Amino acid sequence: MNSNGSDNCKPKPKLKFHFDVSTAFCMNFQSNECQKNENSFDSVGTCASTCLKENYKGCPFRRNPVIPFQCRSNKDCNRNVNSDQKDLLYCTREGTCCKSADLAELRSVFNVTCPPGRQKVQYTYKSSTRLLIGKSCDSKMCPVNSTCHKETYFAFCCL
Question: Where does the record place the BPTI/Kunitz inhibitor domain (predicted)?
């Protein structure tokens, strides 16, 4: 008997999204439709709107906020910072003051490259192109004829 209580489920692999608590990213994985899981979403939008609001209010990579108060703008975060350290902090959409270096690192980890002659596998969500990522190559999120490459925080695919 499988996890949904049915003996006759015919597995249909499908690419889905899950919230990775260690990085606070919504990542892809190949799901066996017979298995039920609360951390399994059909779109990155549903994953983010469900999990980020409930589970995450901090800085990139789950790093601690620099200043423990709600901000509305970068000015709020940098108000009491020395003039030679201006713009070292930024205000997240959730109103948390984080290090600008963490945001720069977040942006840089998504700047991956594939071997010559191959391209990153991406998808479009709300008119934005996004990198297809998974927790590891074991997530089996890469399309047929593509290769999986593991980075520090996630794996990505090249076609």
Answer: 1-51
